[in-house]
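This part of the workshop introduces the protein records we will be handling. A record pairs a protein's sequence with a compact description of its fold. Comparing a sequence with its tokens is the quickest way to learn the format. The record below serves as our worked example for the rest of this section:
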Amino acid sequence: GKKIFSSLDKLFVSPLFATMSYRQTTPIIVFTLLALAHVCEADFNFNCSHLVDQYYFDLKPLARGDSDNDYKIEMSNGSTIYFNLCETLNYDFCKNDKDSMANIFFTDPSTHQSDCSSLTNASKWSNLAINWHVEKKDDKEKALIGTYPATETCTFDTSKLFEFKMNFICDHDHDDDIISAESTVSDDQCSYEVAMKSKYACPKFSFSRIAQFIKKYHIFFALGALILGLFECFYGRKLFKPTLFIFVTIFVTGFIFLVVYQYIVPAGSSHWVGWVVLSSALATGLGTAACLLCFLNIGLFVVGAFLGLCISFLLQNLFLYKIHAHPAELPFYITFAILGLTFGLLAIWIVDHIMIVATTLVGAYAAIRGISLFFPGTFPNEFTVASQMQSGEMKHIPWEFYLYFVCIMILFGLGMFYQYHHKHREEDDKEAENRYKVMSANSADDDI
């Protein structure tokens, strides 16, 4: 154990924490992992954040805390529904000691007496079963619709279960938490739907903004990806420092562009604003990459992380999207975190081999991905494919993707062959040069 931590400290941690030993860095790593676990636990318990169909929603401001009253709405059939969002009801209206996010009071048709039933189960992980999707009402309004898992038998038709659906409709023009609430009941009185308008029902950001920007100017992005991809695929290891410079520049530029364009730039801004943000991000990326050339371990870690990202992208479109989770892209993020960290550390440890594998695969992926931009809809967006499949917006992976995947593997194989051939030739030339120096030295001694 000490040898492993000591190696990691020497190879990676030391450049960042030069004055710390592995004994000092270990508690930091453990504390960080515990903090991340706590954050994940909190997110699953409250389940207020949703990444659905390229849109990110945060419904936590709509949740009613312990000191607040639960939501109450009268239905058209005379029943009354009490419900809460993100959390269980603050009051057990049915007096059945069952945690629930919604209770319904109704008149039992057989006894003609008032009765109460839970519309949803609220065990610790039940929220993961909620089916979320987004409907576009018009150009301005978007509705986040959640169908809660049915658990209780419908009193009005015992062959069915109670169903409860929430529609959260975005409305930027009002400051109130809830503007209006409307309800509908199915003919069999087993399905209940509540619609709520609120500014908090509006998406925080959308991945589609960047996708639309890239789609509009796809020629520039396609040519850039194709040229850089082919360069890295065949010359990544040979041109070592330029490769590190390119990877760090792309990483910093992409991160800044994503954060600023998604979170800061107002929706509906002109496309020239996107180019200003991208240019500024690129300038920052170039400056950062130039500075980090002095810290090769950081650059190598970024290259390895890109390899993990590339593999995660391919796995996402091959089968990860089939794993049902909340949010839908969670398996992709977990895979990327594991592979990115693993290959990032290995890149520092096994430089030559990881550099060749990373540059050839990332280069092949970038080149073919660039070509796919000329044919919209043929290569699924890795960040949203899982949500689109689970919501029904996308029925299946386009057959063209599998053709792209084969092309990536072929180009990857060619790049591996070329780079390893060049590596072995360099080693042979160096060995021949060393033999020549030895022979020259021996010849000089003989002359003496």
Notes: Residues 399-447 form the longest helix (49 residues).
